[in-house]
Amino acid sequence: MKRSEINRIIQEGIQFLKEYKFILPPFAYWSPKEWSSKGKEYDEIRDNQLGWDITDFGSDDFTKQGLFLFTLRNGNQNMDIYTKPYAEKIMIVGENQITPYHFHYKKMEDIINRGGGNLILQLYNSTSNGELATTPVVVHSDGREYEVPAGSKVRLLPGESITLHQGQYHSFWGKEGMGRVLVGEVSKCNDDSKDNCFYEAIGRFPSIEEDELPIYYLVKDYPVLTEKR
Predict the structure, then answer these.
(1) Which tens digits make up the pLDDT trace of 101-140?
(2) What is the rounded distance in angstroms from the CA atom of residue 204 to the CA atom of residue 153?
């Protein structure tokens, strides 16, 4: 992805969040220059990867396969002791914009349609060797438990949610003709470097062509920042 595309996606996303009166924390708007003055007291942001996360999953086509995320809070799976055993994200999902099949080894999560269009999820169990299982999938949605055949699609209307358990393959996208979807995630600690199993080999974080300066750092920019401290 080009940095100019990422900058544009962030700016458009900020406007979408404002439409739904979703207010981001102050650190969301720190410029790279402001970040240079932030010391060790902000290690939680860097170490737990809070902040902007724009990805095309290596597809080079964000509108078809990509996701807009902002991590609001998170613990750390890599620490023996951490203060937060939970995480929260806000996401924007476009019409027919696919997040590809994946599951998590440790993380269990609730995916919530916070407003906008309809969110479609396709579900499978996983086998012991990481394949798509043919067994029925147990769905937990807003207090209801029911069973669907492997590969079934579940629709979340605004206000509805679904619980995704460890080892449960899921892919999701916004329903065509219904507009973008504001999606919340509440989960156990998140670690995108080690806790994701994608069905097909893809890149979780994008390769970036630096055709212009970033307006805001992505979480993938933080390691460079940490080395400079």
Answers:
(1) 999 999 999 999 999 999 999 999 999 999 999 999 999 9
(2) 23
How far apart (Å, rounded) are the C-alpha atoms in residues 189 and 171? Answer: 20
The model's confidence at residue 228, banded by pLDDT at 50, 70 and 90, is very low
Q: What are phi and psi of 219, to 5 degrees?
A: -60, -30
Phi, then psi, of 181 in degrees rounded to 5: -120, 130
One-letter amino acid of 105: Y
Question: Are 174 and 94 in contact, with CB atoms under 8 Å apart?
Answer: yes
- DSSP string computed for 106-138: S--EEEEEEEES-EEEEEEEB-TTSPBP-S-EE
Nearest-CA neighbor of 70 among 56, 88, 52?
52
Amino acid at 73: R
